[in-house]
Amino acid sequence: MRKDLLLLLFVSMASFAQKSEYKVLGKVVSGSGEPLFGATVLVDDNLYAAVVNENGDYSIENIPTGKHIIEASYMGFSTGQKEIYLESKNKKQHIHVNFSLSENSEALEIVHVHGESKKTRIEKKGFAVAIIETKEASQRNVQTNELLKTSVGVNIRQNGGLGSDVKYSLNGLSGSAVRIFIDGIPISVYGSSFSLNSIPPSMIKRIEVYKGVVPGHLADDALGGAINIVLHKGTKSNLNAAISYGSFNTFQTSLNGLYRAEKSGFTVKASGFYNYSDNDYKVSGKSVVVTGLGGVQTPITAKRFNDAYESTGGMFQMGFTNVNWADQFFIGITGSDDYKEIQHGAFMTVTPYKDRFMESDAMLGNLTYQKKNLFTKGLDVNLHGLYGKRNRVVSDTNAWAYSWNGQKAIDYKGDEFEYSWGSQQEKLEFGPVVNHINRYVASIRTGVSYRINHHHKFLLNHVYSGVDRKDRDAFASSFENTFVGTRDLYKNIFSATYELQAMRGKLKANVFGKYYQQKTVNIDPYINEETNKIEEEVIKAHTKNNGYGFAFSFALLRTITLLTSAEKAIRLPNESEVFGDDGDNVVANPSINPEKSENFNLGFRFGNFSIKKHDFTISTNLFTRNIKDRIGLPIDRNPDEVLLLYENQGSGTSKGIEAQLDYRFHNNFGFNFNVSHFSLKIKNNGVEIDVPNTPFFTMNGNLRYSVNNFIQKKARLNLFYTLYFTDEFSYIPPQGNNTIGNEFFNVPVQLAQDFGFSYTFPKKDFVLSFDIKNIFDKPLYDNLRVQKPGRAFYLKLNYSINKF
Amino acid sequence: MKQQFLNLRTFAFAMSSILLISSCTDDSSPLIEEEKGNESRWITIAAAQMGTNPGDGNGGTLIYAVSSEDAKDPSKSIAPFDNGFIVPSNRTARLQSSEDGNTIFNISYAGDTGGNYSKYTVEGGQVFAPTGSEVSIAPYVGSAPRWIKLFDGDQTGAAVYVSTEHQIDDNGTPDDVTDDTYTRTEATIGVVTLDLENSLIKNFQEHIVPLSAEEEAKGYYFSRIDMPTLNAAGDKLYIGGRLSKRDPATAESDSNYEILGSKTIVLDYPSLLNPTVITSTVGHGNTNGYRSINAFEYNGSVYQANQSDPEGSHILKIDANNQYDNSYDFNLDDALGVTGAYVLAWRPAANGKAVLAYRHEGSEEGVAGAQGFFALVDLNAKTAVKIDAIPYEADFYLFQYQGFAVDGNEIYLTQAPVGKNGNMYVVDTETGVVTKGAELVNTTGSHFIGAF
To answer: Mutate which of B112, B181, B225, B402 to disrupt the A interface (most A C-beta within 10 Å)?
Structure first.
């Protein structure tokens, strides 16, 4: 497959590299002067061709002397034709030919065709990518994670309400196989305080979800894919504020503003958010009991009582935009803090936690520089860097046992009692816990791209990220803390990309190579027995790896695009896998290899079909992931074997299909539906099994209906309905045909339905929205018997101004 | 055109509803039952499905009951993986049975129900009827409890827990680390007793269990305890233990240290008070076993296996005076003629003759771990003979073996390599005659973990 592609590239490059005579360039605009991005310009019936860029410009080189016919066309517009004559004595080596096309109202079948949106453009590049636009959602009571959940192929499993632990999975691969970025910077740099749980959609411009094959500019060891959060980059002065209140005492507010001085280009950007929820929703079930004398259990419906979440954060940047030396130049600071009470561990048990919480904060300085056409036309550079500190503390100091009714529990004799392990979470070492992890983090992403012409573009990217980590248990003696090691991790990932656009934009190809370099440093203090002084043992490990891939899209017809991509992807072993984890008795394995995966996507995009006022697009993707050298812990073979080490255990495959339908009617009715189905198998010691505890079949549906001039003139009412479906799945591997008792391990079929409306007031500056989540109050579980919130109501008011 | 938009929507919803309906219509097949005569005893076969690795047993514990005649009948075939009852436990269930085989007791291990006690009446086949109310011992001994049914007529279960704390003397200067010294590691044990008949907690006690000052100064402490066993008089409870060691210089965990004499914690019963520690001079290493009962009362004394003994496992003897009988020296390396014998599970009949599962240094390394063997042991004669009538191969993995069914002098055991079919075997401990019984139908990567 790869060889064929390279051949194709050579052929196409050769065909465009003929000797230069003339250059034809110009603009293609609509009758009203709008640039017609994506329009095609042909010379002599497809002998030479170009695609018009976002500014409406095109240029075609290597036109020999003589008579030529230049033709510009664009869907929905009448075709323009001009004849030129190029003389050999002409001194000017270029000639301007401009077109102004008029809308073609006669073509009945194609009525409304607009220039492609950024979303469509990214989606058509060939990657298996889903683009989530947040503009509308940001005015509603919708969390960023909820937005992701409705996206095809993305699965989110959350261990409770707002702020609780989230696990992301892309086409069946999850955990450290999925990397999350904010503007291309790994989100791990920000820590849990600035996460998809806390960032409001109003700060986000769009979310890009790359499945399996990750483009070079997002270089990281993302084995299964990447989620990139793109924050707003606009340069127009604006202010946006929102406040929301709802069930479970949930209060959320956000403020975003940008001011730009038109003359100097001086720009100030600020955004902030505050979220709070008690998360005191009702739960019931097997483990939600009150224990009486002798341990007799009485089931109850309980309100969660130690689950509050609070997060505060903000970003402030100042600099210059759209000045001659920079498109964007900012220096700024990002700060965030979050506090989450922890009601229970991975499962809901008969011993709920009280007073256990996690608090994290981050304070990071940032620098952004972006410039298109630096020094020379086509040379774009960007740089984004962060440096700062983030801290996390887990506190669990209450030894008293509590019951699900929120009161102290009684033991079999009727007395209140303390746990033997001296904390809420059971553990083998006695005592309260206040575990601090402090990290200094840095990450720099740089990118240089050079567009030779409309056909060829080269990109070089580099991402550096480094973490220096220090652990400390406030309740352990300073003596013990002295001998706790430090772990530092530094990662450099380089990538080179070549992008091709040929055949009038019908063919798009992207070939990339990645080079991964990781350095891990383990520092363990010990006592030198000769000198009787504390010395440090330093062990370093280096890993170097290569990966490569491509994305390829070909428009078979105007409305049928073939999209295919593949990558040999790598996940580097993390610090505990290389150096072990003293707390978990895992010892170092410096010779561990990275996980590798061969990822393939094959997709089609049908559309956009426009039939009168109906618009629809259907896209589908088939995928396979073949993982080798999976990293895991060996089985518990021997209880005396106190020490374990991570090893490369086996292989795994994920195969599946996903499909999405988007339908729009006359701009006021929208429907989209997606379905995803896959199978995930792993193979260890030659035996292959279906991976349990995996929701393998999901569907989401979405309806939107708008009414203009509702109640008031120029006001607009939007109605929304969302349906989430997750098929039953089992916590344990598939069992035999006639076994009984299986239902104990099943996470049942889930069907959640949300309804909401938003009302835009006539001046468009206020938007009021109301949402009901889980209308029918169905019990929902992402994880085995860990219940999620029932029916909930939220009200939100947005205010925005775009003129100062 | 309006028609078309309706069609799309109805199509999508029709599709989802079809999928919904089809996904919840597959559980109403009739129960699979077995018959048993009045003279017969139920033999419950336990099997552990593979989780992610062959032999890990983490994919579910299945049980299936047949009559003792059927268990002995080689023409019968037993397939718990196809027809069994999946015991509700997130990881391998820790099973016990009543002495008559009519009741199965389970304490769920780990997960949301970890520590929940439940019992089932054995009705044959896959039918295990839950009886009594549920009770959880998790608040006392955690959600992954180590528990054993005491031999007191199926009345009591006992579970144990240990938590440790490393003690540091900061020499009065909390901020100066250089003069700090490690003093000892304090082990606190928790013991809970459970009324199996009425599903109630009977008693719970916690104790600090110190070792000798010399042992503690070197950094030794009880890091795991298990296998509570009643003495013959029924007035003392013995708890097996494993010692770990810290490096006193750094308080970090130590390795390659001297293995001390095997130790047992002795408590008053039923008060669970007055802990003392007794030490064997014959055996070294752990006495906390793994998943199968490790110590049994026979003829007035308690016989206890030890593990990770540098000289190979011993069967140790604790006399009616609640002290190790160091004149009783039963070394399995010597008895079996192997090196590095390691007792995986064992069970004596009332005649003092036992079936013992073991591995040794000469075991082949199979897909899940070292190969296991069975031996016939005589506690009085201190002899152990490998049972050659049972077939062995590298993948015959017995590490997670949980139990044997005892019917008079006969002991029922399961034999099947990981992922391969095997058979029931019945050992007449008196005559030494081994009978091949019903076929055990296995499934990929899975194994059998005993009979009850």
So the answer is: B112
Which tens digit of pLDDT belongs to each residue from B298-345? 999 999 999 999 999 999 999 999 999 999 999 999 999 999 999 999
B200–A638 CB contact, under 8 Å:
no
In a domain, A204, yes or no: no
What is the ipTM for the molecules in this complex?
A: 0.89
Mutation site for B-interface testing, chosen from A644, A669, A740 by largest number of B Cβ within 10 Å: A740
- The pLDDT value recorded for residue B10 is 52
Query: How does pLDDT run across B339-369, given as a tens digit for each residue?
Result: 999 999 999 999 999 999 999 999 999 988 8
Cβ-based neighbours of A114, under 8 Å, separated by 6 or more: none
Tokens of A391: 């801290």
Min Cα separation B251/chain A (Å): 7
B338 CB neighbour count, 10 Å cutoff: 21
Cα distance between residue A731 and residue A716, in whole Å: 46
Of A291, A420, A703, the CB nearest to B188: A420
A 427-446 → B contacts, CB under 8 A? 427-431
CB-based contact A351 B443, cutoff 8 Å: no
Instruction: Return the CATH number at B361.
Output: 2.130.10.10
Name which of A635, A738, A784 is nearest B82 (Cβ-Cβ).
A738
Do B27 and A613 make contact, defined as CB atoms within 8 angstroms? no
The range of the structural domain enclosing residue B212 comes to 32-451
Q: Give the position of tokens 């960023």.
A: A144
Q: How confident is the model at residue A130 (pLDDT cuts 50, 70, 90)?
A: confident
CATH code: domain of residue A320: 2.40.170.20
In this structure, is residue B172 part of a structural domain? yes
266-305 in chain A: CB under 8 A from chain B: 286-287, 291, 294-297
∠ CA A206-A207-A211, nearest 5°, is 150
Pick from A453, A402, A455: nearest CA to A424: A402
A608 upstream amide cis, omega within 30 of 0? yes
Q: Is residue A548 part of a domain?
A: yes
| Substitution target from A527, A636, A662, A704 for chain B, most B beta carbons within 10 A | A636
Q: What is the 3-state secondary structure (H, E, C) of B158-220?
A: EEEEEEEEEEEECCCCCCCCCCCEEEEEEEEEEEEEEECCCCEEEEEEEEECCCCHHHHHCCE
Lowest mean pLDDT among A63-67, A130-134, A237-241, A303-307: A63-67
Tally the C-alpha atoms within 13 A of residue A510's C-alpha that lie toward its C-beta: 22
Which of A614, A682, A749 lies nearest to residue B52, judging by beta carbons? A682
**Is A532 inside a domain boundary?**
yes
Structural domain of A771: 238-796
Domain count, chain B: 1
Whether B162 and B195 have beta carbons less than 8 Å apart is answered as no
Residue of B nearest to A426 (CA): B142
Q: What is the distance between the alpha carbons of residues B290 and B85, in angstroms, rounded to a whole number?
A: 24
B23 occurs within a structural domain: no
Q: Nearest by CB to A480, from B1, B195, B251: name it.
A: B251
A467 inside domain: yes
Give CA torsion, residues A278, A284, A286, A292, to 10 deg.
90
Q: Which of A101, A130, A162 corresponds to the end of one domain?
A: A101
Half-sphere exposure of A708 (CA within 13 A, CB side): 5
Number of structural domains found in chain A: 2
Residue B260 falls inside a structural domain? yes
